[in-house]
Specification:
The structure holds two protein chains of two kinds.
Chain A (H helix, E strand, L loop, with lengths): L3 E4 L4 E5 L6 H17 L4 E6 L3 E6 L6 H9 L13 E7 L8 H8 L3 H9 L2 E7 L6 E4 L14 E4 L3 E5 L2 E4 L4 E3 L2 E5 L21 E7 L1 H8 L1
Parallel strand pairs in A: 5-13
Antiparallel strand pairs in A: 1-2, 2-4, 3-4, 6-7, 6-13, 7-10, 8-11, 9-10, 9-12
Chain B lengths: L7 E6 L5 E3 L19 H10 L8 E5 L4 E5 L3 E6 L2 E7 L2 E5 L5 E3 L4 E7 L4 E6 L1 E3 L29 E7 L17 E6 L8 H9 L2 E7 L3 E5 L14 E2 L4 E4 L5 E4 L6 E2 L3 E5 L4 H5 L6 E6 L2 H20 L3
Parallel strand pairs in B: 13-21
Antiparallel strand pairs in B: 1-4, 1-12, 2-3, 3-10, 4-9, 5-8, 5-10, 6-7, 6-9, 11-12, 13-20, 14-15, 14-21, 15-18, 16-19, 17-18, 17-20
Classes of the chains: A alpha+beta, B alpha+beta.
């Protein structure tokens, strides 16, 4: 299932699963990720799954590129290995104070805001990967008529909890950070919990997300 | 703990980006948490060796300007690594200290770490253990994700740094070491090298780039000749590792450092080799760097040589 293994610098394998972004390729990446994670191989210092790549960082004192490449190439994963999938429901408030880019999205998509939100909440989303900043989930796919580009100029600060869309994807800003996604609302739910060290991420690769809409009062209630 | 039994430093001035660091945390890239850890691993290792501490003991890292600390407690030794100017203020007077040398501190003495010289990072520690909390096996503070002791924040004035253990069998030691600098940064060509025009590929290796002020523990932004992308200014977001050099849409290189975002969507032109990382991070804004292309096999050998050199320096501690 891995098409090709290259080196990324001198201390990481770059495993290429293809160039398209779809759930089939991504599921293969995630299967490999969980499988290698479980093997707990000595000297592997990080695994980074993404849409269609898996990067394996290693300790140069223990592995060389060629020896580790061989080990990974020899891994066999049974096709019937089922991915463990959770369905996670996440509340989102689309009050004007939170829906920072709803006007821009209306203009770009030429749809009324109520239609946009109805479409957004009517679908379940698949988690392709988490990262960039701690716990941030990259979810997809949005309907074709819901896709638009990032902001021309990224915001210097996107508020924590913001839910944004761009192209076929949506995400949740787990920290206040710079960013250019189109923000439709905000969740009061904590998506990344530093104090929960065994499982800090609410959403993990392979999970399914269902967003549901809440009022400002409900938002404040949950926050409290 | 009764207050009279406490051993601690009070921070009179925090310095710049002063944090606890150790070797960092592994196997968390997939949830978006980078390695972190001491930027310059060699100076981290030298400091713990000089102080006869465990190899992964926490140290205090600072950038450009260090903290001014006042000590309260029973006699203790401290040491500083890196190219650092500092003063030791005691009842007997004020003396200039030298890096890689251990000094005794008594109750009420102060250490004022003025600056790093022609370098960015310096390290401070004691013959003992700071009282820190561990997050995923590491006490490294990642200020971006607010992970680590002190609520994941850098140090501030009036903070008190607890010492939970002092090694009483410690013998004062020192090392004659002048540090190691580097002229060219050696890199391995990246996975998107062919995204760039041939003339830009040549410029990347022939011309020099200036390190800008937009550099911190997350990354180092460079400016120089614009690198022209002839394929696509973006790739499908994928994992990053430290040392990766991405080219932004504006055509400028940005090097990922220890606290980098774990996923990125800019094409990767090259990656800095592991042997040159410690010396790369010590280059100050305004410095010019040139990149030199090496093979993967050479990079692996150069790393082994670099480690041997570090062990050789450690063996000269007396």
């Amino acid at each position: 299932m891995i098409k090709n293994i290259l080196n990324l610098g001198d201390a990481a394998l770059y495993c290429d699963f293809g160039s398209d972004v779809n759930q089939e390729i991504n599921s293969n990446v995630i299967k490999y990720f969980y499988h290698i994670k479980k093997l707990n191989l000595k000297g592997i210092t990080n695994l980074t799954p993404s849409y269609n790549k898996l990067i394996i960082s290693y300790d140069l004192n223990i592995h060389s590129f060629l020896s580790l490449k061989k080990k990974i190439e020899n891994i066999e994963i049974k096709e019937n290995n089922k991915l463990e999938k959770n369905l996670i429901e996440i509340p989102v408030c689309c009050d004007n104070n939170f829906a920072l880019d709803i006007k821009r999205v209306e203009n770009k998509l030429k749809l009324k805001s109520e239609i946009i939100l109805e479409k957004f909440f009517s679908k379940n989303y698949f988690c392709y990967m988490t990262g960039f900043v701690a716990g941030m989930p990259f979810l997809g796919d949005l309907e074709k008529d819901m896709r638009l580009k990032r902001l021309e100029t990224p915001r210097v600060k996107v508020p924590k909890g913001s839910v944004g869309i761009t192209e076929q994807f949506c995400n949740i800003y787990t920290f206040e950070t710079p960013g250019g996604w189109n923000i439709l609302g905000n969740t009061p739910q904590n998506i990344f919990d530093t104090s929960n060290q065994s499982s800090p991420n609410l959403v993990n690769p392979g999970d399914t997300i269902k967003f549901y809409r809440i009022t400002l009062d409900q938002y404040n209630e949950i926050k409290r | 703990m009764k207050s009279k039994d406490r051993n601690y430093f009070k921070i009179l001035r925090a310095g710049i980006n002063t944090t606890y660091q150790d070797l960092g945390r592994n196997n968390l890239y997939h949830i978006g948490i980078p390695f972190s850890g001491a930027m310059d691993k060699r100076n981290f290792q030298l400091l713990n060796s000089l102080l006869q501490n465990d190899y992964n003991s926490p140290v205090i890292e600072f950038a450009y300007q260090g903290p001014h600390l006042k000590y309260f407690g029973k006699d203790i030794f401290f040491c500083i690594s890196g190219n650092v100017s500092f003063k030791i203020i005691t009842k007997e007077g004020v003396i200039d200290g030298n890096s890689y040398q251990c000094y005794l501190l008594k109750n009420g003495d102060e250490v004022d770490i003025h600056s790093t010289n022609k370098s960015v990072y310096g390290y401070f520690s004691i013959n003992g253990t700071f009282g820190v909390d561990y997050y995923w096996g590491s006490c490294s503070i990642n200020t971006q994700a607010q992970i680590g002791p002190n609520n994941g924040n850098k140090f501030s004035k009036d903070l008190e740094i607890e010492i939970i253990d002092i090694n009483n069998s410690f013998n004062k030691r020192k090392l004659d070491y002048l540090g190691s600098t580097i002229e060219n940064i050696r890199v391995i060509k990246g996975t998107n090298y062919d995204y760039f025009s041939e003339s830009s590929q040549n410029k990347f290796f022939k011309e020099s780039f200036k390190i800008t002020k937009l550099s911190d523990r997350m990354g180092m932004r460079l400016e120089g000749p614009k690198i022209e992308n002839i394929v696509d200014p973006n790739i499908k977001s994928e994992g990053l590792v430290k040392g990766v050099i991405q080219i932004t849409s504006a055509g400028d290189p940005i090097i990922m450092l220890s606290d980098h975002g774990t996923i990125g969507g800019y094409p990767k032109i090259a990656t800095v080799i592991s042997a040159d990382y410690d010396r790369l991070v010590q280059l100050t804004p305004g410095s010019n760097i040139k990149f030199k292309d090496v093979s993967l096999e050479d990079a692996e050998t150069l790393y082994k040589l670099y480690q041997m050199e570090t062990n050789n320096i450690i063996s000269q501690i007396k």
